[in-house]
Amino acid sequence: LSANATSFSSIKKKNFDAGASIPARGFFLIGLDQYAGTTQPDMIWQSGSLTNSGASIFLVHDTTALSTSGNSSTADLAAYGSGTGIFPKEGSAAPLPRIGASLERRAQADSACHVAVASYEFSGNGCDTQNNINDFVERSAPLPQSKSNLPAPRSTPAPVHNFTVA
Predict the structure, then answer these.
(1) Which pLDDT score is estimated for 83?
(2) pTM for the full model?
(3) What is the mean pLDDT of the chain?
(4) How many helices (H) and strands (E) does the chain have?
(5) Are strands 136-139 and 102-105 parallel, antiparallel or unpaired?
(6) What is the pLDDT, as a whole number, of residue 81?
(7) Strand partners of residue 79
């Protein structure tokens, strides 16, 4: 839903293809419009509605169109940027990412939320404080992950020693 929308009738809805799902502790990459990333998306969404100053993205349990933000089928809500219309969000919206950057959900580890880099790189992206500004961080070098990536959280891979190429 665009952050400048004045009613839910302008919501753009994309249902998963039949049989598609987000694996437990896994990832599901949605490529927008002319997505040209190096990671193959799990779904393409020809929308155009998320290339503005802000939006609310709803993850829902069913295929019924939303008519309010308090719908019981909403599993999660991510809002970014700003807007002057109806702008549902959890707490405050995450900032609008710069061009070429992406928003990434923070990792949940040690009873706290962390940026998913360095020692928290494989801690998953499970931070959900019900406040979008605390849950998401801008990643200047996007690292998109899809169903083909290993699940997280998981252990940090062991370093390779004594490696030679024959």
Answers:
(1) 87
(2) 0.80
(3) 85
(4) 1, 8
(5) antiparallel
(6) 92
(7) 56
C-alpha to C-alpha distance for 78 and 57, rounded to whole angstroms: 5
Q: And the tokens for 70?
A: 């308090």
Q: What are phi and psi of 135, to 5 degrees?
A: -85, -25
- Burial of residue 166 (number of CB atoms within 10 Å: 0-12, 13-18, 19+): exposed
Identity of residue 26 = G
Contact 93, 82 (CB under 8 A): yes
Cα distance between residue 94 and residue 138, in whole Å: 9
- What is the spatial distance between Cα 69 and Cα 72, in angstroms, rounded to a whole number? 9
Token couple for 29: 């990459």
| Ramachandran quadrant class, 86 (left: phi over 0; alpha: psi -120 to 50; beta: rest) | beta
Joined tokens for residue 116: 């998913």
Residues of the chain with pLDDT under 70: 47-52
CA distance readout (Å), 35 to 40, 41, 92, 114, 149: 9, 8, 28, 28, 18
Tell the burial category of 112 from Cβ atoms under 10 Å away from its Cβ (0-12, 13-18, 19+).
exposed
Residue 28: strand, helix, or coil: coil
Is the Cβ–Cβ distance between 43 and 28 less than 8 Å?
Answer: yes
pLDDT tens column, 65-83: 888 877 788 888 889 999 8
Looking at residue 50, its pLDDT comes to 61
